[in-house]
Write a structure and sequence with these properties.
Helix content is 11%, strand content 31%. With 444 residues, the protein is mainly β. The termini are far apart.
Length: 444
Amino acid sequence: MSQSTIQRSLAGGEIAPSVQGRADQAKYQTGLKRCRNFVVMKHGGIKNREGTQYIAELKDSSIIGRLLKFVYNADQTYLLVAQNQTMRFIRNAAQITVSGVAAYNGATAYVPGDLVSSGGVNYYCKANTTGNAPPNATYWHPLTGSIYEIPTPYATADLDTLQQAQSADVVTVVHPTYAIRELARTGHTAWTLSTVSMAPSLAAPTGVANSGAAGTTSNWIVTAVKSETYEESLASSATTSSATPSSGSPITITWTNVSGAVEYNVYRRKNGIYGFIGVSADGVAGLSDNGIDPDTSITPPIARDPFASSGNYPSTVGYYQQRRLFANTNNAIEKIWGSRSGMFNLVAAARRRRRDVLDCRAAGQRSPASDRGRGLRRADCWRRVDHPGRQRRRLATAVSEPEADRLQRRCRSRACRDLRQSGLPASARLCSARPALRGRRERE
């Protein structure tokens, strides 16, 4: 005869079969063996799973697609329908369409995102162009009727492994075989997907010169600082002089102002490093160097783009504490990169500066992707011979490769015998049965 059971909370959700016999566990008291077509709520109850609604057929129903979300606020939400090298948009339970598209004009300069009509077909502009009429596939993507869509580089097989992170109207999309791209929205029918530039948004000053005599004894460079965000540009070309500035013989550095800059930082080289010497406000005629000692603890930004080529594209992205984070490229599966706080470009790095970019490695025991065949065995060997309470990585570098190999050959333990067959470098074959290595580490 069945027996009724009162269960006051279902917040534990479905529990694994291996736990279903553990009535002594707290998780068991709130768990479910099976929960189908219900959604578990935080306060303990469950509710019916929401249904679905037919909106429209895919552009090509013979291949799969993927749905991605775009949420700007409660009133501006979209469903992005990605298929093979295309993307459509759904808002308010309907596909976004276009109307009243202007006819193509050969004298107009078009930019990505512009819409034109030619020969009864609507086209989306893919690249900057003037005078290249549709249907030139290099510059124009044809729409199907009035349904709005944009071209993308993503093939059907890669849609499931796309990852995205959104900040306001911009979605960063990453995949290990594609360059980083940003999907930006400026209107319901104004979307662009473009590759990400890791350079600062502000151009470096040009026309940098100085009032000293020609020569190479003294060197100066100038950077522009953006209004409001105070993002700093890359350094300008250097200006040089044979004279050394002093209080009695100051040298004035001048440059051409940059649009959007609020001030300019000036650096002078000292011992091979450019150090900060002063700030000049926008509109001021340069900066006078009267022998200021350069502060090499403050240096100009250094150009860097760790994602510039195939094999170096990240496979995951996110935002954390005002930084945009990337990780896991094919060439560096454990590495993490982060932008400067409040600035989402990675290029703004300096030799010595607080709030600089992040560049670190998440150390682990798994082997590189290039050694997948032996990865599990290698990790297993490391676990079996780890010293309790010690750091394996320190032990691995405590001795040279030849010495580590010699010490291990003297060890007759079963663990070392297994490791000799694992293909690991000698200095990484750790074994608690090696008294010579253990004694050396303790002496150090």
